[in-house]
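Researcher: Predict the fold of Helix-hairpin-helix domain-containing protein.
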Amino acid sequence: MLRKTALSAVLMGATLLPCAYAMPSVQPTQQAAAQEVVMKVNVNTASAAELSMALTGVGTKRAEAIIELREKLGGFTELNQLMQIKGVGPRLLELNKDRIEF
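Model: Structure tokens for Helix-hairpin-helix domain-containing protein follow.
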């Protein structure tokens, strides 16, 4: 009886072992693919809802402030113009620079 238990434990361990090694190699690949997808937004044409959805750290009020400044300037030509908005600084621009288009 002890031999059967030991033999079945070895066989079960051998069949589960390849699955255990396969899973970690699949997960980082899926995570890397998910991180590569970046939603871009044109700050000269986007609505407040689109801005607040696409940009990290931008809610409804800040998105409305972006639109207000956009109308005042006649459109944005460079990223640093967004720093005229209260609460938008270098950190926020760094987080969103890959998402912003003109």
